[in-house]
Amino acid sequence: MEEPTREMEKETGAETDLPETEPAAEQEEAKKAAEAKEAEAAEETAEDGKERKFFKKKKDKKDEKIEELTDRLTRQMAEFDNFRKRTEKEKANMYAIGAKDIIEKILPVVDSFERGLATVENPEEDPFAEGMNKVYKQFTTALDELGVTVIEAVGKEFDPNLHNAVMHVEDEEAGENIVVEEFLKGYMYKGSVVRHSMVKVAN
User: Fold this and answer.
1) Global confidence as pTM
2) Which distant-in-sequence residues (6+ apart) come within 8 Å of 132 by Cβ?
3) For 85-144, what is each residue's pLDDT tens digit?
């Protein structure tokens, strides 16, 4: 009766099957645990990437704002510098225009002094003529200090920018287009004509 029992045990495999099922279950659990860890690590990596991207975007916006403000400041400084230069130029032009107007009004007084002194035969012997001459010199000195100069005319080639020809004459001794006589002196103020010379031109 003992022999059939041993054969039945061998057929069912009760002694050998139990040890083989336990390692397989442990491996499956270990695999699931590893997969869970990998998923968790991947999720953490994704969250970290999102966080870095967020901070990176914030930093870029800040840099863009700084660049925008810097560019705006640079433009405003350039505009202000142009405005300052333009204002200074306009002031200088206004001053020059005002000075020319005043000088133009003074010149007839200088012309009167010159005509009056030209009529005196011996100004050194006439106290009144001597006084007029001193006043005339004060006028001319003040004009010279302001930058007013007399335009050269007689003996110079006619220049329409400086001279106003009111008479022409044929003169063999004079060169062509040469000023031979001046009727009224011309003046310049710092390189700009205040009054043209009134002249006679030869040939």
Assistant:
1) 0.57
2) 113, 116, 117, 123
3) 998 888 888 888 888 899 999 999 999 999 988 888 887 788 888 888 899 999 899 999
Tokens 């004509």 sit on residue:
193
Structural contact between residues 170 and 138, judged by C-beta atoms closer than 8 angstroms: no
